[in-house]
Amino acid sequence: MSKRIKLSLCFGLICAVLLSMTNFNALCDDLRQNILRLHIIANSDSASDQELKLKIRDVILEETSSVFADADSLSVAEGKAQEKLSHFNEIANQVIKENGFDYKAEVSLGDCFFETRHYDTFTLPAGNYRSLIIKLGEAKGENWWCVVFPSICIPAAFTSDLRDSVNEKSAQIAEQSDRYIIKFKTVEIYEKIKNFFS
């Protein structure tokens, strides 16, 4: 087989794989576009900074459970988060002060890149997600995250809230993630490359 034929076959195979991924990635986008994540980045990886991060997490989660309780879309959830940014900032800084630290928290809404995350009963694909971001001090430590809308911060089960927020096929992909492991990995590689160049 000539080199030209081999290259043509290889190119054809790559094109076929990319075309099959297009629909899957569109369904992953549907998941991404209906989720608001909470992203807390610790000041450092020291035990005390990591412990403080978790204390702030607990207080913020207590607040967000009521804030997003009646949100029925990502845009509504984002609007509620925007209204509460200064409140979340005050809470985080109060916890920092009460625990004797001298740095500050910075709370904002933005986009964050996350790698594929597998839970027992569902998977969230890699990519950029709208996020409530809490940076503590220099924000150079290990981060913690969960999904605050729909509220699935206890990652134990695929909830009906998540299914209701996305289309049925996207929900099935998240729920039956073991059937799509290779595709999730391919999406993750693609999203990392896209994120690198954006």
Detailed description of the structure:
The protein is α+β, with helices and mostly antiparallel strands. The chain has one domain. The protein has helices at residues 3-32, 47-67, 74-98, 160-165, 168-175, 181-197, and strands at 36-41, 105-114, 117-118, 123-124, 127-136, 143-149. The chain has a four-stranded mixed beta sheet. The termini are far apart.
List keywords for this structure.
single chain, 198 residues, alpha+beta
Summarize the structure in short:
The chain is of the alpha+beta class and 198 residues long. Helices cover 54% and strands 19% of the residues. The chain contains 6 helices and 6 strands, in the order αβααβββββααα.
Number of strands: 6
What is the H/E string?
A: HEHHEEEEEHHH
**Radius of gyration from CA coordinates:** 20 Å
Largest sheet: 4 strands, mixed
Tell me, rounded to a whole number, the average pLDDT: 74
How many separate domains make up the residues?
Answer: 1
Order of the strands making up the biggest sheet:
2-5-1-6
Unreliable stretches:
15-22, 154-163, 165-185
Secondary-structure-based class equals alpha+beta
Portion of residues within helices: 40-55%
Strand content: 15-25%
What is the number of helical segments per DSSP (H or I, 4+ residues)? 6
Give the CA-CA distance, first to last residue: 40 Å
Shape: globular
